[in-house]
Every structure is written in structure tokens, then in C-alpha cells.
Design brief:
This protein is mainly α. It has helices at about 5-20, 25-30, 30-35, 45-50, 55-60, 80-85.
């Protein structure tokens, strides 16, 4: 790999690590290197899940489009993590 490309990836990794955004995406791609080797067909639905902007109750509540963020199961706020890992 050319030196300039390695340097670019190191810079990108430093920015990725320092960012307080994209927590959901970071669970799937903890490092830049992980994301570079992955071949995924990016759809609007996958982008929504990875960015945390899916139309969950918690997301809609944040914008005052729902009265509450609770999941229909009654246990937690309905966010991407809850839907993927707790249901």
C-alpha cells in the first residue's frame, strides 16, 4: 500500500475514533480498516440503521412526532439497539 494511502487511513481512523457520532455504525465497523473490506449494498434502510436515523419511536419522539419513546413491548425506548438486540 502506498505511504500516502496509509497516512490517509491513519488520519481517517484518528477522526473516526475521536468522533462522538455514529455510535451505531461503530458497533459494526470499529475501525476504518473493517469498513474498507466490506462489500455491502447500501440501501436507505441500512443507512438509517447504521446512522441511527431509522424511524423508531425514540427517533420520532426526539423530534416531537410521538408522545413517548417506549417500545410497544414496554421494556425500553424503541431505538435501533433495542430492536436489533433486545427483541
Amino acid at each position: 500500500m502506498p505511504h500516502s494511502k496509509r497516512r490517509g487511513q491513519k488520519k481517517w481512523q484518528a477522526e473516526w475514533t475521536a468522533s462522538n457520532k455514529a455510535d451505531a455504525t461503530k458497533q459494526y465497523y470499529p475501525s476504518v480498516q473493517n469498513s474498507l473490506g466490506t462489500k455491502l449494498k447500501l440501501t436507505a434502510e441500512l443507512a438509517a440503521v447504521l446512522s441511527g436515523h431509522g424511524k423508531t419511536r425514540a427517533y420520532l419522539y426526539r423530534f416531537k412526532l410521538r408522545d413517548d419513546a417506549r417500545c410497544m413491548c414496554g421494556h425500553n425506548d424503541q431505538n435501533i439497539d433495542h430492536l436489533l438486540f433486545q427483541n
